[in-house]
């Protein structure tokens, strides 16, 4: 009965539009009350969930991304991408995807990617003769590269949800090739559609222009190098490298590029505080929710259910992928990371899957959920920027879904896609 109360109240909260964090908090408090525990336990578990040192890196990552967003770094990355790959057929789509790969590696946020790059590229693509649905579809699906390509605060959340036994530096390395693979699959789909729709190619500006654009973009890319390189080299902890990355981003945008004014700085601070607060509240209440799921032995029961259907590794991983894809359509990503990790991680470990590989598989699955209705945050933001109805994009977005699913299959069943670079670290 307690489990029914927990899941029932949570489900009702989500259906009526209550924020996921509060739906989990109310559901957890109700279940604790039903079991006779003091309601104070809800807050004790929540505070315990966010009292993790590595979570301090999240506000620094978010702040660095906001500084890059409001400090003009995105435009320089777009110019670099345009000079490098703009001459390919349907060139602006390739520019969009390549820019997402670069900017995602700095901001670590899919929504920030759409806000920064989408507001620049979607109008330009429409002016150059690209259809609105194509421009939005490319922008929305390529934005999830920021979830996988480091630095990503979602990787930190996964490491915490896994119990702290997973190296964040290995997660960072593991996300590079899958992120590039996903962008490559999207670029192929975009190219094929561009040929079918007879979209133009941009003229090649020459290698001199490529060199100039790269020199302007490199200082911005150094932010990611500082954060990721500091962690991999062991010079900094994750939190320290996030702090140094934020300081570097501030100095770069304010003193070198001189594109960050006082208003942009204030906006960056407010946005970073708001985002961090949302994430921390979500992590806190999700910790109470996950505690109750463990109390009711949900992970064990679900494991028995899945293995009762099949014990073949291929089939079990397929079922887990399908479950994650469905859940990603209806729930927030951070909440799902915290809830699903303790449920599915023991299952895949028993099957011999490396936890780092599972982390990348989980992030790609839930990233795709950001692009699908009914709770597709990236899809909503992209459609708002492109001024197009969601129904119109959904009619033509399926080739990009297929591309991401193709990358997901390789990530799931070919361990070296995720584990090759971490194996070098070992």
Helix segment tally:
22
Give the N-terminus to C-terminus distance in angstroms: 47 Å
Give Rg in angstroms: 21 Å
Residues in β-strands, percent: under 5%
Query: Structural class given helices, strands, pairing?
Result: mainly alpha
**Most strands sheet:** none
Low-confidence stretches: none
Average of per-residue pLDDT values = 84
Helix content: over 70%
Please tally the β strands and state the result. 0
Shape: globular
Helix-strand pattern, N to C?
Answer: HHHHHHHHHHHHHHHHHHHHHH
Offer a concise description of the structure:
By secondary structure, the chain is mainly alpha-helical.
Overview of the molecule:
The radius of gyration is 21 Å and the shape is globular. By secondary structure, it is mainly α. Helix 17 (333-350) runs antiparallel to helix 18 (355-369). The protein has helices spanning 2-15, 20-34, 40-50, 57-70, 73-85, 91-107, 110-127, 132-142, 145-148, 153-161, 168-197, 207-233, 238-256, 262-295, 298-309, 313-330, 333-350, 355-369, 377-386, 390-394, 398-413, 416-425.
Jot down its keywords.
80% helix, mainly alpha, 0% strand
């Amino acid at each position: 009965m307690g489990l029914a109360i927990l899941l029932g109240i949570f489900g009702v909260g989500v259906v009526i539009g209550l924020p996921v964090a509060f739906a989990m908090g109310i559901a957890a408090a109700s279940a604790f009350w039903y079991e006779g525990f003091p309601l104070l336990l809800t807050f004790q578990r929540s505070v315990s969930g966010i009292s993790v040192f590595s979570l301090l890196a999240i506000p620094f990552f978010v702040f660095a991304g906001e500084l890059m967003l409001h400090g003009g770094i995105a435009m320089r990355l777009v110019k670099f991408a345009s000079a490098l790959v703009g001459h390919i057929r349907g060139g602006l789509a390739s520019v969009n995807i390549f820019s997402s790969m670069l900017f995602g590696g700095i901001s670590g946020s899919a929504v920030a990617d759409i806000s920064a790059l989408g507001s620049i590229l979607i109008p330009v693509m429409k002016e150059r003769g690209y259809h609105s649905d194509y421009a939005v579809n490319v922008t929305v699906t390529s934005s999830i590269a920021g979830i996988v390509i480091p630095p990503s605060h979602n990787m930190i959340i996964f490491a915490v949800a896994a119990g702290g036994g997973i190296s964040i530096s290995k997660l960072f390395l593991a996300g590079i090739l899958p992120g590039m693979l996903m962008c490559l699959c999207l670029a192929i789909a975009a190219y094929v559609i561009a040929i079918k729709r007879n979209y133009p190619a941009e003229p090649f500006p020459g290698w001199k222009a490529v060199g100039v654009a790269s020199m302007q973009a490199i200082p911005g890319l150094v932010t990611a190098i500082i954060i990721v390189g500091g962690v991999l080299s062991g010079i900094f902890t994750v939190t320290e490298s996030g702090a140094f990355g934020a300081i570097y981003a501030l100095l770069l945008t304010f003193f070198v590029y001189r594109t960050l004014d006082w208003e942009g700085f204030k906006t960056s601070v407010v946005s970073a505080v708001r985002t961090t607060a949302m994430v921390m509240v979500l992590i806190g209440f999700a910790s109470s929710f996950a505690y109750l799921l463990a109390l009711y032995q949900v992970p064990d029961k679900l494991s028995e259910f899945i293995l009762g259907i099949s014990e073949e590794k291929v089939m079990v991983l397929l079922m887990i992928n399908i479950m994650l894809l469905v859940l990603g359509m209806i729930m927030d990503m951070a909440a799902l990371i915290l809830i699903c990790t303790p449920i599915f991680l023991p299952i895949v470990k028993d099957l011999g899957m490396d936890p780092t590989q599972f982390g990348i598989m989980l992030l790609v699955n839930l990233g795709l959920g950001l692009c699908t209705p009914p709770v597709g945050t990236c899809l909503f933001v992209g459609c708002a920027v492109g001024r197009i109805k969601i129904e119109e994009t959904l009619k033509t977005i399926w080739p990009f879904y297929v591309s991401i699913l193709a990358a997901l299959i390789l990530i799931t069943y070919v361990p070296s896609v995720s584990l090759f670079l971490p194996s070098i670290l070992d």
